[in-house]
Amino acid sequence: VKSKNKHLSHALLERLMHYYYFVGEQILAGGGRDTVTSTEIAQLIHMDDTLVRKDLASIGVRGYPRVGFKATEVLEAIRRVLGFDRTYRAVVIGAGRLGSAMASYRGFTKYGLEICSIFDKDPAKVGVRMGHLVIQPLEDLAIVVEGKKVQIAILTVPPEVAQKVVDFAVSSGIQAIWNFASTSLKAPEHVFIRHEHISIGLAELSYHLKSEQREDRQQA
Amino acid sequence: VKSKNKHLSHALLERLMHYYYFVGEQILAGGGRDTVTSTEIAQLIHMDDTLVRKDLASIGVRGYPRVGFKATEVLEAIRRVLGFDRTYRAVVIGAGRLGSAMASYRGFTKYGLEICSIFDKDPAKVGVRMGHLVIQPLEDLAIVVEGKKVQIAILTVPPEVAQKVVDFAVSSGIQAIWNFASTSLKAPEHVFIRHEHISIGLAELSYHLKSEQREDRQQA
DNA sequence: TAGATTGTTAATCGATTAACAATC
DNA sequence: TAGATTGTTAATCGATTAACAATC
């Protein structure tokens, strides 16, 4: 009754990704073991083991007393909850360096993301081969979205034109935007926007290095 | 006394970045106004205005009753706290598509990050021009780090070789690593690692689209 | 069985929000 | 001044941790 619309919190999604990540790595590396304990997972990510068990319980994974969790069950459940067991089609808009990197990155398929086209407004770029794709003119977006059932636009255009491109993408039927243009965007309610704040990483680096220096000076 | 080592939480850093971002944008857009209220900031980021005031107070910005906060004071304080008023030098390791995108991205200087070299292990790439830089052989890393006082390595190499490269970078004197290789890394205590989890963004997109579909089905 | 590990309830902690006095 | 906004204390909420019984 209550579970009808329980939305996983951002923090939980993030933790689940960490579990997925580390359990997957451990399996690859691991010498024949196919189970993992909550304590092991917790140590890898520097957190409490109780929380790991709670999180896993919340997505329906049951552990085995004295043994731990079966790695495949953990991975399977996370895949299911996060939707990695389905395929989502995406297009890249903006065939600059970052767009080209995104379009040619192979790691996305593992998460069910399939990049099926790349677009640019610049006529000089249209027709150019980029990995296994050929750059198409932005005007063709609606046709591709319709024809290939595309849901996601990966936005790698300059910030100045980002909002205009988003408006166009939305009118072309795009349902979600993965925003790599460093500017904020507006879109209708039904369009989901995920903004990738590269500068947050930068802030952490910068803040950390600054603090280190200050501490060094205090010690000196 | 207590303020000696107060470390800003990850969440606070992230909120500060949002404030910085939005207040900066508003200034650029704004028609002559040079103040901003906590309520305005809060609405932009969908949060409580009290928290905005608390956060700003915590980094030493004082507001003006009836008026709000002076935008320049807010920006200045955040720059100072996060260390954007200093310059940090970085090198890119791995001259693939992503590395090339990072090396040529102009937006970093705004945050005090200066990219001063790009490296690759592949002899075929060495010597190739990439924006205003020329790809150098990885062996030269230590000399560059020493000579140009480089602190940060932006890691854009394939995951298989990432750990090896990190070990080498650390031995060359690198103090912080911005990791874009999708694998976890180990480094000595004194080396700060920021792992950029691209897949977390993907998880959010995927989860959101999945939920939407389920809700659609329930309605139908 | 004994013992390791899970699962879950209760306690704690910290972060967020509400309330309201202080200020210009 | 009146009124809008800050600053801060107290109340609430949710997330994390501790404790421990249940399990194999």
Give a quick precis of the structure.
Chain A has helices at 10-29, 38-45, 49-58, 71-82, 97-104, 141-148, 159-171, 198-219; strands at residues 35-36, 69-70, 88-93, 113-120, 129-130, 133-137, 152-155, 176-179, 192-195. By secondary structure, chain A is of the alpha/beta class.
Q: Secondary structure elements and their pairing?
A:
The structure is a homodimer of 220-residue chains.
Chain A: H1 10-29, E1 35-36, H2 38-45, H3 49-58, E2 69-70, H4 71-82, E3 88-93, H5 97-104, E4 113-120, E5 129-130, E6 133-137, H6 141-148, E7 152-155, H7 159-171, E8 176-179, E9 192-195, H8 198-219
Parallel strand pairs in A: 3-4, 3-7, 4-6, 7-8, 8-9
Antiparallel strand pairs in A: 1-2, 5-6
The structure holds a DNA duplex (24 and 24 nucleotides).
Structure, described:
Two copies of one chain form a homodimer. The first copy, chain A, has 220 residues and is an alpha/beta fold. Chain A is 46% helix and 17% strand. In chain A, the strands form two sheets. In chain A, strands 5-6-4-3-7-8-9 form a seven-stranded mixed sheet, with helices on both faces. The first copy, chain A, is globular and about 65 Å long. Chain A starts with 9 loop residues before the first helix and ends with a helix. Chains A and B meet through helix 1, helix 5 and helix 8 of A and helix 1, helix 5 and helix 8 of B.
